[in-house]
């Protein structure tokens, strides 16, 4: 059995995972994000202890512990180089957690862990290369090549959300302009929906935004489109085009067996997926389209399962 830990800016989740990728039990606790890394690891250790105690599992039964953490990670040494929403700078998480548990400990970027979890969830021996995309507050991404996480030469490769799709375009949180994240994230979708609602006050989109306290969310423009609302449709059409442009770039670069799309926006299902597939078939280099595009299966559990399998 394995332990997977998903360390986030607001919460820590830990789960006991079996050989087949099933979470047998999981629990969570708040992240004391601005505390020293030793405090965060101590909380992590206590949470793992609780998961083990609740399942009557002995530490000797645990093969490895894996930690998924946002930010730049030195995965060879288990060190968080920098995480902007946690007080972690050159923090040796693996070394510190080994003080509590005498088992191998691995650390990787949280998006990479989610990608690894989704890779195992595909459960197909013929699939060796996938790219997992998370359309959330930002655009997270993880790349699996030959069944292994790709991180580049310095451990921080794979930031597909920060490839530019429009030169001199929208400002991105990374400081550049025109990044894919600035167009394909849920944040971008919400921005455009609220803008369209103001410009089209008589639209059904504007009605839904008003009913939601004047704020849009990722569901509202899709809901407006389903009702035949033209303002909502324009927002969705533009958004899907921007997402699809990035997807085509990924296919042209990696030609993976599969691309898995997760995050809150992925709840739109076929309304998001089908147009992306159609655009990809039409625009992939040389007309070669053999990548399977699907919605992620594991939801919020992907990070735990992927982290658990970091040492597998």
From TrEMBL:
InterPro entries of this UniProt entry?
Answer: ATPase_NBD, ROK, ROK_cs
Q: Which residues form a coiled coil?
A: none
SUPFAM superfamilies, per the entry: Actin-like ATPase domain
Q: Which Pfam family, any one of them, does this sequence belong to?
A: ROK
Where does the signal peptide begin and end? none
What the entry lists under PROSITE patterns is as follows:
ROK (PS01125)
UniProt lists the family membership as follows: Belongs to the ROK (NagC/XylR) family.
PANTHER family the record matches:
BIFUNCTIONAL UDP-N-ACETYLGLUCOSAMINE 2-EPIMERASE_N-ACETYLMANNOSAMINE KINASE (PTHR18964:SF149), ROK (REPRESSOR, ORF, KINASE) FAMILY (PTHR18964)
Q: What protein does this entry describe? A: ROK family protein
